[in-house]
Write a structure and sequence with these properties.
Oligomer: single chain
Strand order of the largest sheet: 1-3-2
Shape: globular
Structural class: alpha+beta
Largest sheet: 3 strands, antiparallel
Number of helices: 4
Distance between the termini: 16 Å
């Protein structure tokens, strides 16, 4: 399954806002909407880790989908209420405008035994 991983720095003071939002997505009131959103986009796995660094907190994200560009495009353009909320949240806590496009990271290593 194709995958993409990337780091999204959190804006100062936004870690707890992001933690609360992702808790609502993982097992709270937004869970069903999140699952439907990812199903529409063709995303089969989405994992997010929080990494604290001396320069601030970073969300480390992994997404799997048969068609990564299409999946990311669906998240960027969907008019569904959850997807609109997700874009607004991403802008507010990471300063990333998903509607502006997403330059994929350069993969340097993919070791598998």
């Amino acid at each position: 399954m194709p995958s993409i991983a990337f780091a999204a720095p959190l804006l100062p003071g936004k870690t707890e806002v992001d933690r609360a939002a992702l808790t609502s997505v993982a097992n709270g009131e937004r869970r069903a909407d999140h699952e439907e959103s990812r199903k529409r986009a063709g995303i089969t796995r989405e994992s997010v880790w929080l990494q604290s660094t001396p320069n601030g907190d970073i969300a480390v994200v992994v997404i799997e989908a048969d068609d990564i560009p299409s999946a990311l495009g669906a998240l960027a353009t969907s008019e569904e209420p959850f997807d609109q909320w997700f874009r607004e949240h991403t802008q507010a806590v990471h300063g990333i405008d998903l509607t502006a496009g997403f330059a994929p990271p350069e993969q340097l290593l993919d070791f598998r035994a």
